[in-house]
TrEMBL record:
It is found in: Plastid, Chloroplast. It catalyses: octadecanoyl-[ACP] + 2 reduced [2Fe-2S]-[ferredoxin] + O2 + 2 H(+) = (9Z)-octadecenoyl-[ACP] + 2 oxidized [2Fe-2S]-[ferredoxin] + 2 H2O. It comes from the Eukaryota. Fe cation 2 binds at E175, E228, E261, H264. It is an enzyme of class 1 (oxidoreductase). Belongs to the fatty acid desaturase type 2 family. Its main location: plastid. Binds 2 Fe(2+) ions per subunit. Binds 2 iron ions per subunit. Pathway: Lipid metabolism; fatty acid metabolism. GO terms for biological process: defense response; fatty acid biosynthetic process. This is Acyl-[acyl-carrier-protein] desaturase.
Length: 395
C-alpha cells in the first residue's frame, strides 16, 4: 500500500500505528464503513466508487535479496524442460462448451431442461459451496496479477518469452475455463441469483487479495503449491457430492476441474522442489514464513454488498459439508512437507534448522487444535445467502 493510501486508511479508521491496520475493517463504495471492534454502519453519499479491502496487513515488499533474482534467471531452461511440458496444448484441452448444452443445436432447449431437472435435486448448502468455488475461480485476474508481482519471474511486457511468463499466461488461460464452465452451469441451473453472484465477483476482483508473498517467488510458489492442492481437494469433493446428489454431469465438471488443479499442483511443487535443491536454507525459511503467516484463501475478501462475513459463512458451509476443512489444511501441509522431504534436509544454518523444525512439527499441532475446536463446536446458526435468493442454510 502506498504511503498516501496508508495515511488515508489510518485517518478513516482512527488508527495511530500501522500495526493496527489488520484490525480495521471498512468499505468505501460498498456503502459500509466500520471498524472491527465498533461494528458496521451505513454511510450515505459515498463519493468514491471503489472499494478497499476489508482487511489488509501491513505489506512487506521485495523481501527477497535482489541477488537471488539470478537464481530464477538461471532456472529458465530448466523451467522450459520441466514446467512448460506440464501445460496442455490448447487443441487437447477440454472447453466449457464440451459439457454444456449447445446453443446452436436443435436439442438446446431439451438439454437445458434436462440440466435443470438434475439441478433440482441439489441441496441449497451444496449450491452455496459451489457458488463460492465458482466465484473464487472467477477472480482469476487477481491471481494473474499476484503472479506478476513476483520479482524475477513476472511477465515484464505482457507477451514476454521467458519460461516463467509463458507459464503464467498459459496457466491463466487454462484456469479461465474453470470459472467459465461453473458460471454457465450455475446460470443454466436456474437455482441461483446470478445478479448477486456477479456483484460478488465484481467486488472481489476490485478488492484483490492479501497473500503476503512480498514479491518473493519463494513465497509465491509455496503459496500456489498450497492453493492448487487446496482447489484440487475442494473440486474433488464437490464432484463426489454431486454424484451423491445424482447430478453425474456436474460431478464430471467438478472432476475435470480438479484434474487441472492437480496438474498445476505438480508444476508449482516441482518448482519449489528445485528451489529446495538450489537453496535449501532460503526455501525452508520461506516455507516456515508462509506457514507462520497462514495461507489465506484467494477469495478471503469476498463481499456481496450485504453479508459482512460472507467468506467466513461460505467457509463454514464448506467445512460442514466436508468440501474444504481445517483437516485438509493440515493434510496439505503434511503432504508438502513430505513432497519436499523437508525433514531430510541437511547442512542447514541455525535459522534454517529452526524453520525445518517448525514446519515439520506444524501438521500435528494444527490437528490437535482442530480436534479441540471440533470438540467445543456447537451447531452453527441458519442464515440466508443472497447467492440463492436469501434461502436459509445451516452454517
Ligand atoms: Fe481453478
Ligand atoms: Fe488452480
Amino acid at each position: 500500500m502506498v504511503l498516501l493510501d496508508l495515511l488515508v486508511y489510518n485517518a478513516i479508521c482512527g488508527l495511530k500505528r500501522t500495526s493496527d491496520i489488520s484490525a480495521c475493517a471498512f468499505r468505501l463504495g460498498g456503502v459500509m464503513v466500520g471498524h472491527a471492534n465498533m461494528g458496521i454502519r451505513e454511510v450515505e453519499n459515498v463519493k468514491k466508487p471503489f472499494m478497499l479491502p476489508r482487511e489488509v496487513h501491513v505489506q512487506v515488499t521485495h523481501s527477497m535479496p535482489p541477488q537471488k533474482i539470478e537464481i530464477f534467471k538461471s532456472m529458465e531452461d530448466w523451467a522450459e524442460e520441466n514446467i512448460l511440458v506440464l501445460l496442455k496444448p490448447v487443441e487437447k484441452c477440454w472447453q466449457p462448451q464440451d459439457f454444456l448444452p449447445d446453443p446452436a443445436s436443435d436439442g438446446f432447449h431439451d438439454q437445458v431442461k434436462e440440466l435443470r431437472e438434475r439441478a433440482k435435486e441439489i441441496p441449497d448448502d451444496y449450491l452455496v459451496v459451489l457458488v463460492g468455488d465458482m466465484i473464487t475461480e472467477e477472480a482469476l485476474p487477481t491471481y494473474q496479477t499476484m503472479l506478476n508481482t513476483l520479482d524475477g519471474v513476472r511477465d515484464e511486457t505482457g507477451a514476454s518469452l521467458t519460461s516463467w511468463a509463458i507459464w503464467t499466461r498459459a496457466w491463466t488461460a487454462e484456469e479461465n475455463r474453470h470459472g467459465d464452465l461453473l458460471n454457465k452451469y450455475l446460470y443454466l441451473s436456474g437455482r441461483v441469483d446470478m445478479r448477486q453472484i456477479e456483484k460478488t465477483i465484481q467486488y472481489l476482483i476490485g478488492s484483490g487479495m492479501d497473500p503476503r508473498t512480498e514479491n518473493s517467488p519463494y513465497l509465491g510458489f509455496i503459496y500456489t503449491s498450497f492453493q492448487e492442492r487446496a482447489t484440487f481437494i475442494s473440486h474433488g469433493n464437490t464432484a463426489r457430492l454431486a454424484k451423491e446428489h445424482g447430478d453425474l454431469k456436474l460431478a464430471q465438471i467438478c472432476g475435470l476441474i480438479a484434474s487441472d488443479e492437480k496438474r498445476h499442483e505438480t508444476a508449482y511443487t516441482k518448482i519449489v522442489e528445485k528451489l529446495f535443491e538450489i537453496d535449501p536454507d532460503g526455501t525452508v525459511m520461506a516455507f516456515a514464513d508462509m506457514m507462520r503467516k497462514k495461507v489465506s484463501m484467494p477469495a478471503h475478501l469476498m463481499f456481496d454488498g450485504r453479508d459482512d462475513n460472507l467468506f467466513e459463512n461460505f467457509s463454514a458451509v464448506a467445512q460442514r459439508l466436508g468440501v474444504y476443512t481445517a483437516k485438509d489444511y493440515a493434510d496439505i501441509l503434511e503432504f508438502l512437507v513430505g513432497r519436499w522431504k523437508v525433514d531430510k534436509l541437511t547442512g542447514l544454518s541455525g535459522e534454517g534448522r529452526k524453520a525445518q523444525e517448525y514446519v515439520c512439527g506444524l501438521p500435528p499441532r494444527i490437528r490437535r487444535l482442530e480436534e479441540r475446536a471440533q470438540g467445543r463446536a456447537k451447531q452453527g446458526p441458519i442464515i440466508p445467502f443472497s447467492w440463492i435468493h436469501d434461502r436459509q442454510v445451516q452454517l
